[in-house]
Write a structure and sequence with these properties.
two-stranded antiparallel sheet; mainly alpha
């Protein structure tokens, strides 16, 4: 079994084992087995980084086997510079979530841990799939564990949020399935994604394919105006669910644009780039303004995620190597930063059982260690230099200014808006005198919470100070993608 298969199926297998073991009510054993499974899953992904050839744009660690012979569907895996870093990122966030949920989840522990481990393997499958139908199966399968995580362990309106999440994402994906079947027929009965990249397609066909993929991926990102499911889901989801949703699941949609929309329908991508840029700028500016008036911490960070993912799609559709690389870096950085911010909120919620900003005030007086971590992550969310949040945003802004000054100016507004709503929330929650008796009785981070936030803080600082390993792996694949997209595929 290859490394990518191990990265996919090891956490899924451990997740299935955890589900079976939990029947005897062995919660402590379940937690340890889940943690060992998550750590093993992370360990399997590390050789992908050390063994990756940064000079090559080709898919590496390739595995291929016939899966469904009748339809020529293959179990075809591989990673290039675009997808490489999302595999260890997914495994790392899974470890973080398992540790973070150690004490907060007391009911159906086996199902909770099992769902996250299975979800981890499925998401890695999305980033590794080189067969269109295999991609679709993994892409859709991720909905099931996340639906259960929201619907079982979520807040009072969890059923509504879970249903909205499932309905939005499933409906968009059905159009993608139609597009995949069309491409299968056009390619003479092949689901190979690389073959689809080389298909000559008429202008009308490219446009229809572009919007079919847009329906699936824009909802997943989510782009404005199909973003309305995200705040509801974040508010109701448990802390671990919010962390994984923001850190990894939103990236599946953005990744889809690079793997399908742009290389398969390059002429349509260029023709409709103005629409993608406009929607991205609306997300960056308008949704940033919406975030400023939120009273719920989770909802504020959820809107912040929409704004930051607007940076990603903006970087992609200005067709500039710096923009695409910046968008990819922003995706990884957002994974660390947004996950960390949701976990900070989860620490407070575990103690006070409220996400309302007004329920706090002066937390720094009783929880100085949490306040220090929250300040770092807030600054990273603002795009402070030397943090992960700065690198991708800066690259996208530079690329945007090269593309069009006014587009660049609109993108730069995100730095101002991001600082406004993030620091406003931090000021009201953490600074000033102690707000009430609940805050006065708070206890600071325990060792487990400190470990979780400490690991994320190291990741945020490392990526902010030394992003070169990330960009070195991306550059050849990004250059190849741009060369491919610059050539018309009209017959």
């Amino acid at each position: 079994m290859g490394l990518l298969s191990l990265a996919i199926w090891l956490p899924i297998a451990v997740g299935a084992l955890v589900l079976l073991l939990g029947r005897a009510g062995q919660a402590p054993a379940v937690r340890w087995i889940a943690l060992l499974g998550a750590l093993a899953g992370l360990a399997v992904t590390l050789p992908l980084i050390s063994g990756f050839d940064n000079a090559s744009a080709a898919a590496q660690f390739v595995e291929r086997a016939l899966w469904i012979e009748r339809f020529n569907i293959h179990y075809h895996l591989g990673v290039d510079g675009i997808s490489l870093w999302f595999v260890p990122l997914t495994a790392f966030i899974t470890v973080i979530v398992v540790i973070a949920s150690w004490q907060s989840i007391t009911e159906r522990v086996n199902q909770y841990m099992g769902a996250f481990l299975i979800l981890s393997g499925l998401m890695i499958g999305v980033f590794s799939a080189l067969d269109g139908m295999l991609f679709y199966v993994f892409f859709e399968a991720t909905l099931i564990p996340m639906y259960l995580i929201i619907g079982i362990w979520g807040g009072p309106n969890r059923i509504y949020a879970a249903f909205k999440f499932f309905l939005y994402t499933l409906l968009g994906s059905l159009l993608m399935l139609v597009a995949l079947i069309y491409l299968y027929n056009q390619a003479g009965g092949s689901f190979d994604i690389a073959t689809w990249h080389r298909l000559p397609l008429a202008a009308n066909a490219q446009t229809l394919l572009f919007f079919a993929f847009f329906a699936a991926f824009a909802v997943k990102v989510p782009m404005w105006p199909v973003h309305t499911w995200l705040p509801d889901v974040h508010v109701e989801a448990p802390t671990g669910g919010s962390a994984v949703l923001a850190a990894i699941m939103l990236k599946l949609g953005a990744y889809g644009f690079l793997r399908f929309s742009m290389p398969i329908a390059p002429d349509a991508a260029h023709e409709w780039a103005w629409l993608m840029i406009t929607l991205s700028l609306v997300a960056v500016i308008y949704v940033g303004l919406v975030a400023m008036v939120q009273k719920d911490m989770k909802k504020l960070v959820a809107y912040s995620s929409v704004a930051h993912m607007g940076f990603v799609t903006l970087g992609f559709f200005i067709f500039n190597d710096l923009g695409i690389s910046g968008g990819l870096v922003q995706m990884i950085a957002h994974g660390f930063v947004s996950g960390a911010m949701f976990l900070c909120i989860g620490v407070l919620y575990d103690r006070v059982h409220s996400r309302e900003i007004a329920a706090y005030g002066g937390v720094v007086n009783t929880m100085p260690r949490l306040a220090a971590f929250a300040l770092l992550f807030s600054m990273a969310n603002c795009g402070l230099p030397a943090t992960a949040g700065f690198v991708g945003e800066w690259m996208v802004i530079i690329a945007s200014v090269k593309y069009d000054f006014w587009v660049g100016l609109g993108a730069a507004m995100a730095l101002i808006l991001g600082a406004s709503y993030t620091l406003w929330m931090y000021k009201r929650v953490y600074l000033g005198p102690v707000g009430n008796d609940n805050v006065r009785q708070l206890t600071d981070l325990n060792g487990r919470e400190f470990l979780v936030l400490g690991l994320l803080a190291l990741a945020v600082l490392y990526m902010g100070i030394y992003p070169k390993p990330f960009t070195d792996a991306m550059d050849p694949s990004v250059a190849q993608l741009l060369q491919h997209v610059s050539q018309s595929k009209l017959p």
